[in-house]
Amino acid sequence: MTEKTRKRDLRTRVTYVIHERVRTYAAAHQVTVYQATERLVLLGLDWTGAPTKDADIALPESIGQLAARIDVLAALADRALFGAFVAYTYARYAALESLTGDARQTRDRELLEAGQETYHRQRTQALES
């Protein structure tokens, strides 16, 4: 309220009860009724989230920060998926190492189906969250 800005006259009529509450607030904070009214209006606007010029500037900046964080999270998810894929590949080779012929092909198909099933299940759960 110490800002040097052009002020506009804003008048309103209030009930006696509201006027007394403003006067009580003014007395408690050792300001005039006019200053108390201005503070209370600003507090009310802040509480309701009424936009300000600063908010208009901050919104695109906030969106940019969120986009950057989303990119980081996407990269982390890709790395986690890659790590899971590498682990699956090593486990698959270990499971198939001692098998030959039809047994190897059958086991390979089973492992591939189980891996795809797990992938699709995890993907579905992630999209539902």
Automatic annotation (TrEMBL):
Domain of life the protein comes from: Bacteria
Name listed for the protein in its UniProt record: Uncharacterized protein
Source organism (scientific name): Dyella agri
Lineage: Bacteria, Pseudomonadati, Pseudomonadota, Gammaproteobacteria, Lysobacterales
